[in-house]
Amino acid sequence: MSVNATTETKPAASFLDSTFKISERKSTIGTEVYAGFITFLAMSYILAVNPAILGDIPGMDRGAVFTATALAAAFATLLMGVFGNYPVMLAPGMSMNGFFKGMLLSGSVALVWHEALFGIFLSGIIYLILSLTNIRKAMIESIPEDLKLAITVSLGLFIAFLGLKNAGIIVSNPIILVSMGNISDPQVIIAYISIFIALGCMIRDIKLATFISFISAILLTVLADVFMGTNNAPLPETIVTAPPSMSGSFGAIFNFSGLTADKMFDLLFIVVIFLIVDFFDGMSTIVGVGRDAGIIDKDGKVPNARSALVADAGGTVMGSVLGTTSITAFSESGIASSQGARTALRRLWSLACS
Predict the structure, then answer these.
(1) Given CB 3.0 to 4.6 Å as the disulfide criterion, which of 16, 165, 206, 250 pairs with 201?
(2) Contact (CB, 8 A) for 71 and 322
């Protein structure tokens, strides 16, 4: 029995190794699986935050945005994993959805939500065309070596800043931009303890440092809720349900009944702005994570760049059709490369977790 199992396992492992170049990039299947799980935990907040942001826009349904967010992220992730083989995950960009909401609610543009999403769709098409040519690849490879190193460092600092902000360790300050949070807040105390646990595990060279600190944070949160009453939210009635319908958002961008000539300038504005932001946001993340993972070589060449860029652009096109804002490479992908992920097997495992 064990012999047969071993015989069946070896071809499977060999297939994964040859397909995703695991050994070539000096990684292991276990490392990729672990990094994928950690990355999913780091990015899963987008499933709640994106609907919360876009759901405030008149006409956009939170449930439909939730389903569109999940499907668009899965589609783009699958493209990047299968064809790009980069340890980079994609989902609706946080800065883009906030900017999108601000434009519509402030009246900066005279467009309704599905007309504005059509502008994002057009920006994705242009982005896709650029990705199919050598223009964007040439731009990536023309970035100076020092700037590529700076992008990698800034990516890590940005992730750390987001983590400290979400944990409440730092808060906004109108005078000095940021200041220390309330250290007596149970959430902040739990965050500090989790950080020290992770640092201790890293000093002791324990590979599961991130996972151990994550589990400790969950346990401490549960204990704080039980003994201190920090969470008064009711328990959910059901654990698993079918995803909400997208009937109100799927394909809504192709409704041109209200798209008059006087709205063309606003539509062009959205196309240009989101093209520029998506263009450079995706480029910086791919370069930063690729550099950290050792995929980009010393000469600055980006292997399989076209497939990676097409996945980035294709995600934006699909996301707008489904009913969400631009899909972009997530900076949280740097967490995976810091855990030793070097291939897209980590991305596909993250997709399976979701």
Answers:
(1) 206
(2) yes
